[in-house]
Every structure is written in C-alpha cells, then in structure tokens.
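Question (not urgent): is this output format expected?
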Amino acid sequence: MTQNAAAHRLRFILILGTLSATGPLAIDLYLPALPQMMRQFNTSASMMQLSITACLIGLAIGQLIVGPLSDRYGRRRPLFLGFFVFALASLAISLTHSISLLIIFRFLQGIAGASGQVLSRAVARDLFSGPALTQFYAILNAVNGIFPILAPIVGGVLIRFVPWQGIFVLLGTIGLILCGLIIIGIPETLTIAQRQTGPLFDIYKSFGQLLKTPQFTGYIIVTGVVYGSLFSYIAASTFVYQNLFGLSAQAFSLIYALNGLGIVIGSALPGRLNQISAKRQVQVSLSISVLVGGLLLVGANVHFPLVAVAGLIFVLVMMIGLLLTLTTSIIMNLTTQNAGGASALIGLSQNAFGGLASPIVGLFGSASYAPMATMVLLFSGAALALVTRSKSR
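Got this back:
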C-alpha cells in the first residue's frame, strides 16, 4: 500500500468511525450536565432520564428507517441528510426551555444520529467481505470505542466553564462538520445497479428475506444479547464501584475509562486473530464471558475484593468488544444484498436488548452486584447455546 493510499484509508476509517459513534456520543457527552439541566427545567430526575430513553428509542427506530432507505437511494445522501438533521436538532435543544420539547428534540436527534451507526456498517460491507471485512470492523469499532471513554470526560470539563446549552451547541457543530466530511471524504459505495427497485414499501420486505437467511436470525439475537451484557455492566457500574466499594467519582471515572479501553482492545483483536475462524472466536469468547459471569456471581456472595471484581469486569468488556466486532462481521458477511437492512436489524437487536437489560438490573435492587452478574451469565449462556446449536447443524 502506498503512503497516499494508507493516508486515505486512515482518513476514511477515522471519518466512518466518528460517524458511527455520534449517536452514542449524543448520550455520553451530556450525562455530566443532567443535574444542572434538571434544576433549570425544574423537573424530576425521571423526566431527565426520559430524555435519554427518547434518544435511545430514536436510535432504534432511525436505523429501521435509514437502513432500508439506503438500500434504495444509496448511502451518501441518507448519511448527509441524517447528520444535517442531527445538527439542527442539537442546536434546537440548546434553545429550548421546555422539558417536553427537549424530549421531542432528543428523539429526533436519536433518529438522525442512527444514520451514522447503520450506514457505517453498510458502507464497510459494500467495500469488503470475508476476513477483510472482519479486519475493517475491528479497526472501525476500535475507533468507535474511544468516544465513550472521552465523551463523559469532555462533557464534565465543558460543564465547568459553560452552561449545559454549550454541550448541544458542540454536538450541533460536530454534526455540521461531519456533513462537510461526508461530502469530501465518503464516496458513494452502493452503485445504482446494486440498489433496490420497485415500490417504496417493498424495501421493507427485505427484512423478511434477511431473516430467512440461514444463521442470520441466530446471530442477530447473539449480537443483541452481547449488547445486553454490556448494558448490564453499564447500568450497575456506578453503584458497584462507588456505593459498594466506596470509590470517589474521580476514581470511578478512571476505572470506567479503563474498561472503555478494554472494549477498544477487544474490538481490535479479531483483526489479529484472522488465522482462527470468526465462529470459533465467538464460541471461545462467549465461553470466557460465561465463566466471568459465574465468577462474578460467586464473588457477590463471598465478597471478592475490588481488584478481583475490576479485573473480571475488564476481561468481560474485552470479550464484549471482540464479540460485537465478530458478530457484526458474520451477520454482514451473510448478506450479499440489503446491507442497509441487515445493519438496521443489528442496531435494532442491540438497542432492544440493551434497553431491556438496564431496568432489569436496577429492578433487583442495589444491595449487591449479583443482579449484574446474573444477567451477564444468562445473556452469555443464551448466546453460547445459540452459537453451539448453529455450529451443530
């Protein structure tokens, strides 16, 4: 690869990785501002939490809209339009004084931000297949994984110097910058000959065709339950480290960032392990996740020390990063057409299981991290059973 080609590839990956992370960034960046926003809107904590839920629902629905539409109209136009709307919604939030309008605009922000998540996967599938696709997703997810590490830190620093509106002005500015980068840095990867034709409603029939593809549905569920494991950890992380182990907010942020780095490392591993089949890597990684879930459950009862719990969780998030890369690659490799629709189903499954896991972990109380460990064990065990059953056919 020439130096110019390598530089072009790096620029393309960085842009695509940033595009794919913008939806989650819209959640992570403003978390430190929630207390200030709650006071200014004179509302309850539950209403502020609803603004997070609205964005998550928007991210799920947006993928179902943008993915199939991109199979008909190409990737570039829906991507540009999505980020233009994302920028407008972000700037509108910075001007609103109503909690109801905040929730509505957050929903729109989620729908628009979904375009980056769904189409980054589809663009990669247009360009690559097989091991090359796995390697590309490994790099893409590693770039993507940096943002959850940096976002709360940036948001926390920003909120010290500017009011909460500054965070959404920043998000709006990021959206507009990405619109420009799409124009200059992202080519159209779906040729006219490859696009879906016929009545507009027919593009949604592709979901049925995809679900009939052998192993497709199984891996869609697997990638969802892996995401469920991730959100089981996220939902419990503050409580586990600050309440149970008595860490300060700063120490918790450090461990949270370290675990984010674990996801980045795990995401990059499949590109280094291409001599082992992707399905074999999935099976081994899920086996390790089951073991970690079981050990955490034991630890919750015999009171493992902080270093043991933190170490087990670090291994878990590494496996999650690896599994999200692998399952995405396997699913997208199973499709020769309708890559946008396939990517939308990945996003729907992940958001659905992630959204399900968070309240369930909280529902079982905060006297122990056993609920988190149980959810990780159940999710990982179910995924392993699905993969093993698929391999035996």
